[in-house]
């Protein structure tokens, strides 16, 4: 039994599109989809800007606050307090998404983010600054759950990977923008206040634009708001496919209601297939962080200075180049994720990441020789790292997590997985400088390289390929993985699929 043989008639499946190739949807021929994706992806821009801006702002915060300059702990706390807020925001964001919808969750995130930007810009001391970072984190945490799910639920399956990856492009674009703004304000009084304060601008823009956008049609179906859902879907699909999509989602909605609310809100860990999905999704999110990406993005100017380039302006300029490569690599990932596939792309990415981290480790280990060559080699290692990471491990975890969970659990499971991402992010950000000071920068990157090897094995063993699959096909995939060796269950699964 295979997925394609039992789901060939599901709209958006590979079999369906083989029969009706004229019903394929192209993103760039449908400005409505592009517009929805662009506005929702501003959440990714907020995520990316906050990730990148603190790396440059920290250089000037240390100049203004002596306590910060003399304390690695305070530096790490200023960086990581946003991550602590994001953990809470991501955990709450899953519930907010399921209870109130993707649209309201985004608006709530924008309000919180704007408040945080104002508090940071006006902070009279490091401790008020830390409070502002906490507010920023809450908003970013909610947005990190909401944007990928909102985009995925609006996307036709054949272009879902590329559209969800657009959110990742906005993350990397936000990081690049943050470095540009950091450079622009280097000679302006109140340097870091401007750097952090302008982060509220995208949140205000998204707030007003989201008021004009619809709710996710899948969430509307779950809430029995069928007419509103059909209105949204009619702007995405032509009439022939629209009819098939509506019939499918109506059947799904009726099936879910027949199962009862007690099943919908049951403990997800009682389901073997959902446990497998969470293992793959949350594992990818954890390894995305533990393979060092936000170590590079938060501390890239500091790493460049460690490599021997001591000028703040030069450190920011070299970091800008790294951020530009990150954005460019994500553009490549948008193309590859629906062509090469999620799993292959992640494995290729991790192979390059391992090699790059070894180069970084060797560069710093040999830095004591006094040769400037190793400083430049470290910068090259950073660039290679970004070049390999961004198309694969930058895009794949968020895309996979937007599509591997059943409809009624998507917000909750997405929130759990995003929380894992932010917890992992916090651990890395809070420990990197201290670990580097204790064992050396070179050995620290070597440790991250070893973790990347474990990540490669994890993806190879636990992460299936979901390229081009509909949400229903993905759900069947996990059921086959969980129960495929049980002939009686497989037969029931086949019968249920044929009936639907």
From TrEMBL:
GO cellular component: membrane
Keyword terms, alphabetized: Membrane, Transmembrane, Transmembrane helix, Transport
Membrane-traversing stretches: 32-61, 73-95, 107-124, 130-151, 163-185, 191-213, 314-338, 345-365, 371-389, 445-463
Coiled coil (residue ranges): none
Major facilitator superfamily (MFS) profile domain ranges (all copies): 36-467
Subcellular location as annotated: Membrane
Keyword Transmembrane helix: yes
Keyword Cytoplasm found: no
One of the record's GO molecular function terms: transmembrane transporter activity
Top-rank lineage group of the source organism: Eukaryota
Membrane disposition: Multi-pass membrane protein
GO terms of biological process kind: myo-inositol transport; polyol transmembrane transport
Family annotation (CDD domains): MFS_HMIT_like
Family, per entry: Belongs to the major facilitator superfamily. Sugar transporter (TC 2.A.1.1) family.
Annotated PANTHER family: PROTON MYO-INOSITOL COTRANSPORTER, SUGAR PORTER (SP) FAMILY MFS TRANSPORTER
Name by which UniProt lists this protein: Major facilitator superfamily (MFS) profile domain-containing protein
